[in-house]
Amino acid sequence: MKVKLLFFASLREQLGSGGEEFELPAGVATVAALRAHLAGRGGAWHSALADEKLLRMAVNQDIVKPGAPIKPGDEIAFFPPVTGG
Amino acid sequence: MKIAVQHEDFDAGAEMRAVSRANPGVGGVAAFVGLVRDRNEGAAVGAMTLEHYPGMTEKALSGIVDEARGRWQVLDCVVIHRVGELKPTDQIVLVVVASGHRGDAFAACEFIMDYLKTRAPFWKKEATSGGARWVEARASDDQAADRWAGRAGRKTG
Question: For residue A70, which of A4, A19, B40, B118 sits 20 to 30 Å off, Cα-Cα?
Fold first, then answer.
């Protein structure tokens, strides 16, 4: 019951990780709940993920709102607001 | 329609000629080219690295182009965005829209750029005289994209 986590740009640098395979804990059913769970790891995870307003989230490569549901097998990405163009 | 995310430079003139010739119904071609500036937020920029989210980037750009096609007459369209290390004066992004008339071409081109800047997963990191820093998103870019919400296209074709 794993999901694939991805982190990009400044978030990737803060966390020291571009992503991981992650065992979805029972009761973590939305992107917001997942973010809170990861922030609970403390340290850089807390400082990078605690403030939802500074983050954008995508599930299976579509930008979603924090309340979006997640399920095993999903690709879930966290990143800062985009700055291309 | 052509969407590309690439390290290599592009030839805006060649892309514009290609869409102009592909369809004799094309009456106007609008294009935008974004470049690396040598200054940003008060600091000299020596180089810039563009990171993206492979897979999602192409999907997001396709979705933006589809939305433009739903609003305006878009006979053909090219979106090319570069990634990797770029230097001041280098080209970053190209948007070309071919339509029957200029109104649709201008509007669709601006719409695609405004949405690209707020919805496509690219991130810029600048090497400045004061060190490396991630470029921060601008509220003015969100406002530019929000202008299009609820605004119907004209579909002059």
Answer: B118
Task: Enumerate domains of chain A plus CATH numbers.
Answer: 2-79 (3.10.20.30)
Q: Return per-residue pLDDT of chain A as tens, 85 residues.
A: 899 999 999 999 999 999 999 999 999 999 999 999 999 999 999 999 999 988 999 999 999 999 999 999 999 999 999 999 9
Residue (of B124, B118, B113) closest to B36 by Cα position: B124
Count, residues in chain A = 85
Which chain B residue's Cα is nearest to A7?
A: B53
Q: State pTM to two decimals.
A: 0.94
CATH of segment(s) B2-135: 3.90.1170.40
Q: How far is CA B28 from the centre of its chain?
A: 18
Tell me whether residues B137 and A84 touch, CB distance under 8 A: no
**B113 touching A, CB under 8 A?**
yes
A82 closest CB neighbour out of B92, B113, B137: B137
